[in-house]
Amino acid sequence: MSSAMFFSLLLNIGLLVLIAALLTKIPIVRSMLLYDKHSAGCGIMLALIFGSISIISTYTGVRAQGAIVNTRVIGVLAAGLLGGPYVGMGAALIGGIHRYLFDIGGFTAAACAVSTLVEGIAGSIFSSRFKAGKIGSTGVFFLTVFVEFLQMVIILLISRPFSAAVQLVKLISLPMMTMNALGMLVFLGTFNMVFLEEDSQFAERMRLALGIVEQSLPHLRKGLHSTQDIQAVAEIIFQSTSCSAILITDSEKILGMKKNSELTDMQENSVLPPILASTHDRKPTVFHYAGKGDPLYSVLKNHVIVAAPIIEMNQVTGSLTMVLKKHWQQSQSDLNLASELARLFSTQFELSELEYQKKLRQKAELKALQSQVNPHFLYNSLNTISYVCRENPDRARELLLTLSSYYRQTLEHNSYMHALKTELQHITSYLELEKARFEEKLHIEIKTDEKVNCFIPAFILQPLVENAIRYGFDKNGNRYVSICACMEGAFIKISVSDRGPGIPEAIIHQLYHGEHYGGVGLENVHKRLKSIYGQEHGLHIQSSDSGSDISFTIPASSESKYDDEEYAVTREKDVLMERRGIYL
């Protein structure tokens, strides 16, 4: 009889595992198992499902000495562990009441009904610990053994005559404890496949999406403004997935399309309006079927279309559409990939747009600097040249050419970054004009290490030099200005010093704390440096009554990448937008 019990319990466990496997394929059950927080309706449904499993276990049990040897504990205990207290107690009530009504007046009817409720309580008590991962396979095994032991105790306490209860417990305790404990592990392992499969699909989907984005990054820097780059992105997605076609659109037309030979008859004019219309609600749309009069009919006969909106700055600016071959079981991961990619592309386009706006702001700052060239310098230079004209016409002619060269460099230089050598040439033109004005009272010294070869923001030195000449005079009216560029470890230090009365401490304090002190030169340079190189790379000022030294450091790796590559991308984007009728 004992071997028959083991075999019967083994068959029952196999049946429960089959039921569990089928349940995991039902989307609503998967959803309820994957998320702890569910509605009352979902809780009732889970209680009914696990209660039904308990009922099935009662029907498939084998009779022995007036009792039913079964696997009912698996459904009830699993309900509490997986679904929580309400689901566990609901399933226990369903299974317990059914067990009592199934064999009213039977030898163990009342005891088994009570034990079923106890099993539900035990599952509910240990639910939070189980979901938190604090109870592993060993813990589940011994928990099942324990509740089966309690069932044997309840049978001894309630079932009468007592001698018959003792004989029954001797017969069924070992098979039910061992087989139900093992069955519980297999049953929960089947449900655990839901979580493992979901994690695996999510990881694979993210790996694929991130791989596509990584390959597409060089083409996404221009947003949706370059059809050539968008076409390249469409081809990357097509090659990386099993899609039959990939379409990337803006709000008006298809920018990039890649399709296989099956969809040669798919016309842009027919599929575009429904796709664009579907993205207005800002949610991914799945097209499964269409009537014969529908423009998507020819495509949807054998395919599924998934359209996901591309959103930039809270505005729908385009869509990413994937055309998938129809299968008898459509993979949810394939359907979700389009929305994942669209979100990643939207983020990248927003970053690209923010970077573009930053470039525009920097260019605007440069234009502002160019337009803010001190008009007094121009007046003073012209007055100086007019005096020189009387005594030395040739020198006046040289100064006029210098002034012309200086303003040409100032007003026509469009690069936000340029070589330190270029900046010093510009400063030299400025100093030559100032030298003509102050003559022997202006002393200039420029020192640069031979190893120093970097790119710096345009017009970053002139405000510092101009400030030193304007305020850095000693008691005798002499102006000593020193410009130095040297290596300091992994950084390049550039400084402008003078021998004047120094900068007032109040101005230095206001500059460091972001307070406007009335001037714009030092403040502008300080903010530009921090914006480009970081907060720690602003101006460093040392001042005393014997002079001031204004310096800043930049990374020695500041090469021409920004000037040659970044600026080129920005300029190309400007041209693309101008061609599309957008003038900034």
Automatic annotation (TrEMBL):
Principal place of residence: membrane
Classification via SUPFAM superfamilies: ATPase domain of HSP90 chaperone/DNA topoisomerase II/histidine kinase
Subcellular localization: Cell membrane
A Pfam family annotated for this UniProt entry: His_kinase
Membrane topology of this protein: Multi-pass membrane protein
Residue span, Histidine kinase domain: 460-558
GO biological process: cell wall organization
KW Ribonucleoprotein (keyword) present: no
InterPro entries, sorted: Bact_2-comp_sensor_kinase, GAF-like_dom_sf, HATPase_C_sf, HATPase_dom, His_kinase_dom, Sig_transdc_His_kin_internal, Sig_transdc_His_kinase_LytS_TM
Origin: domain of life: Bacteria
Catalytic reaction equation(s): ATP + protein L-histidine = ADP + protein N-phospho-L-histidine
Keyword Phosphoprotein attributed: yes
GO cellular component: plasma membrane
Entry-linked SMART domains: HATPase_c
PANTHER family: SENSOR HISTIDINE KINASE YPDA
Protein known as: histidine kinase
Name of the gene encoding the protein in the UniProt record: lytS
